[in-house]
Automatic annotation (TrEMBL):
<dbReference type="GO" id="GO:0009090">
    <property type="term" value="P:homoserine biosynthetic process"/>
</dbReference>
<dbReference type="InterPro" id="IPR036393">
    <property type="entry name" value="AceGlu_kinase-like_sf"/>
</dbReference>
<dbReference type="InterPro" id="IPR001341">
    <property type="entry name" value="Asp_kinase"/>
</dbReference>
<feature type="binding site">
    <location>
        <begin position="218"/>
        <end position="219"/>
    </location>
    <ligand>
        <name>ATP</name>
    </ligand>
</feature>
<comment type="pathway">
    <text>Amino-acid biosynthesis; L-methionine biosynthesis via de novo pathway; L-homoserine from L-aspartate: step 1/3.</text>
</comment>
<dbReference type="Pfam" id="PF00696">
    <property type="entry name" value="AA_kinase"/>
</dbReference>
<dbReference type="GO" id="GO:0004072">
    <property type="term" value="F:aspartate kinase activity"/>
</dbReference>
<feature type="domain" description="Aspartokinase ACT">
    <location>
        <begin position="377"/>
        <end position="433"/>
    </location>
</feature>
<comment type="similarity">
    <text>Belongs to the aspartokinase family.</text>
</comment>
<dbReference type="InterPro" id="IPR018042">
    <property type="entry name" value="Aspartate_kinase_CS"/>
</dbReference>
<dbReference type="Pfam" id="PF22468">
    <property type="entry name" value="ACT_9"/>
</dbReference>
<keyword id="KW-0808">Transferase</keyword>
<comment type="pathway">
    <text>Amino-acid biosynthesis; L-lysine biosynthesis via DAP pathway; (S)-tetrahydrodipicolinate from L-aspartate: step 1/4.</text>
</comment>
<dbReference type="InterPro" id="IPR042199">
    <property type="entry name" value="AsparK_Bifunc_asparK/hSer_DH"/>
</dbReference>
<feature type="binding site">
    <location>
        <position position="119"/>
    </location>
    <ligand>
        <name>substrate</name>
    </ligand>
</feature>
<keyword id="KW-0547">Nucleotide-binding</keyword>
<feature type="domain" description="Aspartate/glutamate/uridylate kinase">
    <location>
        <begin position="2"/>
        <end position="275"/>
    </location>
</feature>
Length: 438
């Protein structure tokens, strides 16, 4: 069995949803994971904000716009009048409690409850469309099998048990349709896997059922070797290892949710990135194999803060780094890049929620400098195969840019550099010219 995930833009209008059904119908027995229709989750975020502040007029006016949008969508999607009506009645029922301001759930869960509606609606419409077109589909409810542990990570044992039981209970079903993104928390309330989390759902479902393959369908032909928004002549990467893909997803390639590689990698399930607009194009295959292509791709991540701790105490003092890292652990802040010298250590973080407390605590160890508005540039590839010359090619390409940190050798497939945010785009372009044949 395969798991196929389609993002919001792949469902952007009724024609595109029909196209998704066409793609799905050619793949045998599958689990289809859908995001909300493009734009819906953003609107729901606004609705949740307004709802929490008691701005009911605001809620009503956003809902009105959404309802108009869905009316058009539904009119174009279905042939039969009765299905148009069933679909619209369902959509309206989802929004009724919002405009009437009578959501029956804990205040803390209201936002999650509202955000879940996007995926609930897209899957309902898709399942009904399959039915109208004679496809043998069954709508599942992800809240029945995806829940978080007390530590807020997906409960994979629970998922595997419940999802497999449902699938074996419906042996004659070809297409299972499930919501991406949404789940329950450890207390049973509606929750989610954070924005963009549908990829993660798909990978979790794939791992839970030992899928043959997980396909992530978007509207670009796979992961590119540089950011196509800023750099001309980027090309799709045919093959990536799980590690390379994880680095790229984490450090900026927007096409894939960073956590989504983990479950698939653990079960060694290949992940294919495909394009709904060109269903027959090769896309990118992510698997345990790595083809020795040296430098494969470049990505950048903005909004980085660097913290340098200088201390004479550090000189030959075992345990100094542990004490530094413990400060970050204490404040639930993860470190991305680290470089050290004998008397100083520099680290980067992207979450500055606890920056002030972190700096205050670190001040007890030595001098602390904080640099903001930085970008991480990540160069990814298979660097064991060609052991010479890689770092020099990267540094040569960036010769005109001041580099704040360089990290090389942490793994065999990335070089990470820290530069000022102001030169991020220029640095990406310079690397593209210097590293790839363009
Ligand atoms: N609909 C959710 C979002 O917009 C989840 C997803 O698209 O993956 O973030
Ligand atoms: Mg998405």
């Amino acid at each position: 069995m395969k798991v196929l995930k389609f993002g919001g833009t792949s469902l952007g209008d009724a024609g595109r949803m029909k196209n998704v059904a066409e793609i799905v119908s050619r793949q045998g027995r599958v689990v289809v994971v859908l995001s909300a229709i493009a734009g819906t989750t953003d609107s729901l975020v606004k609705i949740a904000e307004a709802y929490k502040h008691g701005e009911l007029n605001q809620v009503k006016s956003i809902v009105e716009v959404l309802l108009k949008h869905y009316q058009r969508y539904v009119d174009n999607l279905f042939e039969q009048e009765s299905n148009k009506q069933t679909a619209m009645t369902f959509v309206e029922s989802q929004f009724a409690e919002l405009v009437e301001a009578n959501i029956e759930t804990a205040t803390s869960a209201i936002e999650f409850h509202i955000l879940a509606k996007g995926e609930v609606i897209s899957t309902e419409l898709f399942a009904l469309y399959c039915e109208e077109n004679g496809l043998n589909a069954k709508l599942l409810y992800s809240l029945d099998f995806l829940r978080l542990t007390q530590e807020n990570s997906p409960d994979e044992a629970y998922l595997s048990e419940h999802l497999n039981r449902i699938l074996t209970g419906h042996e004659n079903t070809d297409i299972f349709v499930a919501q991406g993104f949404i789940c329950r928390n450890a207390f049973g309330e509606v929750s989610n896997l954070k924005r963009g989390g549908s990829d993660y759902s798909a990978s979790l479902f794939g791992a839970a059922i030992n899928a043959q393959e997980v396909q992530i369908w978007t509207d670009i032909d796979g992961m590119h070797n540089n950011d196509p928004r800023f750099v001309k002549n980027t090309t799709p990467i045919r093959e990536l290892s799980f590690d390379e893909a994880a680095e790229l997803a984490y450090f900026g390639a927007k096409i894939l949710h960073p956590s989504s590689i983990k479950p698939a990698r653990r079960k060694n399930i290949p992940v294919r990135l495909l394009n709904t607009l060109q269903p027959d194009a090769t896309g990118t295959l992510i698997s345990s194999e790595s083809n020795n292509a040296n430098i494969k791709a470049v990505a950048a991540k903005s909004g980085i803060t660097a913290i340098k701790i200088r201390s004479s105490e550090m000189l030959q003092a075992p345990g100094f780094l542990r004490r530094v890292f413990e400060v970050f652990e204490l404040y639930h802040t993860s470190i991305d890049v680290i470089t050290t010298s004998e008397v100083a250590v520099s680290v980067t973080i992207d979450d500055t929620t606890y920056l002030e407390s972190i700096v205050k605590t670190l001040n007890e160890f030595g001098n602390v400098d904080v640099d903001e508005n930085l970008s991480i540039i990540c160069v990814v590839g298979d660097f064991v195969a060609e052991s010479t010359g890689i770092a020099s090619r990267v540094i040569r390409a960036l010769e005109a840019f001041p580099i704040r940190m360089i990290s090389y050798g942490g793994s065999a497939h990335n070089i990470t550099l820290l530069i000022s945010e102001d030169v991020r785009v220029k640095a990406l372009q310079a690397l593209h010219e210097g590293l790839f044949d363009v």
